[in-house]
Prior knowledge:
Number of domains: 4
CATH architecture of the largest domain: 3-Layer(aba) Sandwich
Oligomer: single chain
Number of strands: 27
Strand order of the largest sheet: 5-4-17-16-15-6-7
Amino acid sequence: MANKINYNKGKIPGDESGIELRYSVCDICTPGMHCGLTCYVKDEQIIKIEGTKEHPFNKGKLCTKGLGNRQYMNREDRILTPLKRVGERGEGKFEPISWDEAMDIVASKMLEAKEKYGPESVAFYVGYSKWFRFMLRRLAYAFGTPNFGTESSSCFTSGVMAWQLIAQEYMQQDMANTDLFIGWGTNSFFSRWPMVGGMEANKKRGMKVIIVDPRITPTTERIADLHLRPHLGTDGALALAIANVLIANDWVDKEFIDKYTYGYEKYAEYVKEFTPEKGEELTGVPAADIIKAAEMIHQSKSACITESSAPLGHHTNGMQNYRAMMSLLVITGNFDRKGGQRPLNHSFIEIDCGFPTKDHKFQYELFPEGTKPAVGAKEHPLWHALRNEMQANDLAFNILRQDEDSVRVLFGGGMNYRMFTQTENYIEAFKKLDFFVNVDLFMTDTCKWADIVLPACSSMERGEFKSYPGCFIWHTTPVVKPMAESKSDVDIYTMLANKLGLEDEYLCGGYEKCIEYVIEDLPVTVQQLKDAPHPFKLEGFAPYKFGSTLERGLKTPTGKLELCSKLIEDNPQWGLDALPTYKPPFNPDPEKYPILLCAGTRIPNALHTRLHEVPWERHLLPEPSVEMSMEDADEYGIELGDDVEVVTNIGSLTFKAIPTATVQKGEIYIYHGYRELDINSILDGTNLDPYSGFPAYRSAFCYIRRK
């Protein structure tokens, strides 16, 4: 007799096992990913997770992070009910309260501050996830404050600002049609993994690849035709040196430059000093490789660049790095052309999906006029001019000043103070606040400083509108009920809007009403999106027509692509350079701190602090570690597993050593997100990019010693 199949043990869905397949998305990382999840559900519990084969984005695959979703949502520190602080701030002592009581307290404190100090005294901040920020931004503006900020104060936005200065709109690569793909700071096997498939497929049709990364990674070894390894924070000098070769050899598109650019003569004159030899001196990249990169650009009929959101912007010269490398595309005519860089036409949450929505209007139409400038406007005027929102890296300093412009009440949505540098500043700032509320899934270190903590739920416990490139669109439905008393973030905002008495039919009407507004010009309803088992393609939208932006005319001050920023030229009081100039990373004492420190190195099993508490993920790298070159390990007498003290001008921490041949001499790399050894806590909180306000996570300086 054949063995009886154990459907439950095999987790086989069907009537025999009582296991159902339900579909959702992973929201652990950025909304640009949000891969499809197939959840195996039995007795209203998720017993298994895998990638959804029918999903147009991940096509059945999941990364290490996504595969940990079941343990992630069931972390031991899940917040199960609204909590009210009963001990001192930071003690983590709370008592459960009802949702009504919690929201009454939150609304009353916000209204009290508004009455006493003005609406600007209340700030709203969004960390992770990002999917709900469009709704919280509108809520902040409806309340009357310009002080809405996000974790994009340190991520993504620096590159957007650079493109704003050049073209007044963000640009993205056309990898599918390019002859040369330049992955600047690209390590897709560890971050944005779906890009790997695109690079591999396009290489088969003949696309060449340059990867710029100080380290040796799977991407540099498996994908790159040329690997350029600049020292940390010298990307701008490398780009200027490549430009020097292009201009000196007349490998530029003169007709395009004459017709469409502003400031080329000043730019070309400045670039003259960045010879290949000077480039090698500044960056460590051999002059021959700099020349080779320029030759590859020249020999290619088209070229495009993908710039990483984090490693290029996280320097005191970060935004200038972006401008310098983007200028390579401008002088070679690889702008608004097939295979080059094309405008990103915003659909939803900074993603170009191929169709228009009213997302931008929804977010900004209630912006309060006539208020005090947002936090950070004085310290970072270019940020204010281009973004007109709170620069959150200035928030702690604003609160600690305790003056008439200080924030008194802070509403956090997934706020994590450990993402900021010199984190002690934020702890001291929390102590000064009149009131602090944070929404999160877990009892994070930040939540311990809050007066009220509100429990959010995971992506599998709620519904969410989703859109993907290629005109794909969907609205998920809950796979299981929210755990205990947790709620969707957007439901919390609707409750708050009503408690505050805001006269906004959309915020007070709920998430679906907001989405109806956002997609009302599309030939689809929210109910149709919810009825679909998977994302489906909207038909009837033509692909982008290359050249149409140049034909229409640019919206920059000069109407041209600006190699020299007219906005900065017209505001000399800012003290910023109109050209994409290069300045080395700031070192407070080169003799005392000879080693470049990169904090926040990507690892495939973690994102910020969110996954180190997940057993499957934590066991892959249990101990906070520091990578260093074999040469530095020999010089300092350090072996694998030794305790190594890392000392900056702020403080010191001790990590486990990992000597490796993938790292260059004179540089160390520290993995991010370990709460017990937070490298950000010993990084200088004042060491910010004057253009964007971004911290120098990835070009700090230190010395090391074996303990």
